[in-house]
What we know:
There is one protein chain. By secondary structure, the chain is mostly helical. Helices cover 47% and strands 0% of the residues. It has 6 helices and no strands. The chain starts with a helix and ends with a helix. Mean pLDDT is 89; it is low at 17-25.
Amino acid sequence: xxxxxxxGLAVAVAGALVAGGTYVxxxxxxxxxxxxxxGFDKDGYDRDGYDKDGFDRKGFDRDGFDCEGYDHExxxxxxxxxxxxxxxxxxxxGFDRDGYDRSGKDRQGYYKSGYNxxxxxxxxxxxxxxxxxxxxxxxxxxxxxGQMKNGEFGYALHDIRIGLEKGVKCIITHWKGDSFIKExxxxxxxxxxxxxxxxxxxxxxxxxxxxxxxxxxxDTDVQKDYGQVHFTYxxxxxxxxxxxxxx
Length: 247
């Protein structure tokens, strides 16, 4: 019994010493505010909230940048994000995602309209050129409309095809230059498709309209109904509207 009492007393004393030692240790290691002699709390942050490497609990330094050099919005000290784009959307070379600089010009010196400072496009053409081509297409539309009313579907399709060829060439010349022009209408529509010069759904309408149209000679035996001819007419009409944007 005495032996057990002595053992219990020893354990109690040891526990008290350990507890007291911890208390003393903690008081020697941290001040009343919880900081050690180096000025850091138990989590390793100083009174301003920064660790020994100078970063706060969210991982940013006193200037607001993380360990990779980016601020809270993801931009570095020079103002660019991880993708090399600044807050205004321009890359380090001064161009936006569409390839235009702050003055609105691309690398070749053309504005979003497709014209340069001299008023010429990639095909060396001016507004006047497209106005003239547009007038020719408008005349074709007027003529084809009359042919459709008279049931002259073969002639209407023949003329509409000519209009389609003119219109598609205008689009290619303006945005890519004459060197991209092909001999056949089908190939030129393909150029528009591969270069994304026109909406994809309209490209498919151009292919369909081309398939309805005659070759470039009169064929009065062609069997087409009014709906098919009217479809090609509306496609040419929409193409003329897209050319109006160039003027």
